[in-house]
Amino acid sequence: MRVEIWSDVVCPFCYMGKRRFENALGMFEHKEDVQVQWRSFQLDPDIRPQPGLSVYDYLAERKGLPASESRRLHGSLAAAAAQLGLIYNFATAVMANTFDAHRLTHMAREHGLQEVVEERLFAAYFTEGRDIANHETLAMLGSDAGLDPAEVRQMLAGARYTQEVKGEAREATELGADGVPFYVFDRAYAVSGAQPSELFLEVLQKVWEERAGVQLQGSSPS
């Protein structure tokens, strides 16, 4: 079974959804037969570096909210993340364009390290306050995950994986995604949002049972 997950590494719901899906997968009887593939999506592809711009101010400006409401919403997100063992330090988060971070995940996919890099990027942004648009930071994060930092720097200096990142974002829209996280199971079922682990487990079981039924119907008589 293949599960494709469209996400952005600065999306707070995507990191929580990652944990909830992982918890569901851990309870799934056939977890060893599930292939997870991360797909690229940018919440704000036009964002540019703005020194001094906080996450609180960014959301307030983007959504037309009072600063106090933005802080309240982020506090609620941090509390929800903590229940999953995640630490969200919004006060130190660095607003960044995630395009190059997504290019790094494509490189990691070719080396069988995509899951590790995704986790490293999430932690770097939400917990450590790292600038995940900075090429040297990305090289170090890639190194942490097992990639050659020199190869990461070389990749980032060019345009490699640019079309792949853009193509996956278009594909998400074609599949009906209007936001992330967006989960697609065997291109048969889709789930939007950071849903409870119980729902993810239910979908995993349903897709598996339907796959088994198709295989049984298509098998040759002995």
What does this structure look like?
By secondary structure, this protein is of the alpha+beta class. It has one domain (2-48, 99-218): Glutaredoxin. Helix content is 55%, strand content 9%. Strands 2-1-3-4 form a 4-stranded mixed sheet, with helices on both faces. Helix 1 links the parallel strand 1 (2-7) and strand 2. The radius of gyration is 19 Å and the shape is globular. It starts with a strand and ends with a helix. Mean pLDDT is 94; it is low at 216-222.
Describe this structure in a few short sentences.
The protein has 222 residues and is of the alpha+beta class. It has helices at 12-27, 55-63, 67-82, 99-110, 114-126, 135-145, 149-157, 162-174, 197-218, and strands at residues 2-7, 35-40, 182-185, 189-192.
* SSE-based structural type: alpha+beta
Mean pLDDT: 94
Largest sheet: 4 strands, mixed
| CATH-scheme architecture | 3-Layer(aba) Sandwich
CATH superfamily: Glutaredoxin
Helix content: 40-55%
Examine the coordinates and then state which fold CATH places here, giving the name of the CATH topology.
Glutaredoxin
Unreliable parts: 216-222
Q: Could you tell me how far the N terminus lies from the C terminus, measured between alpha carbons in angstroms?
A: 26 Å
For the secondary structure, the number of strands is: 4
The CATH class is identified as Alpha Beta
Q: Sketch the topology as an H/E string, one letter per element.
A: EHEHHHHHHHEEH
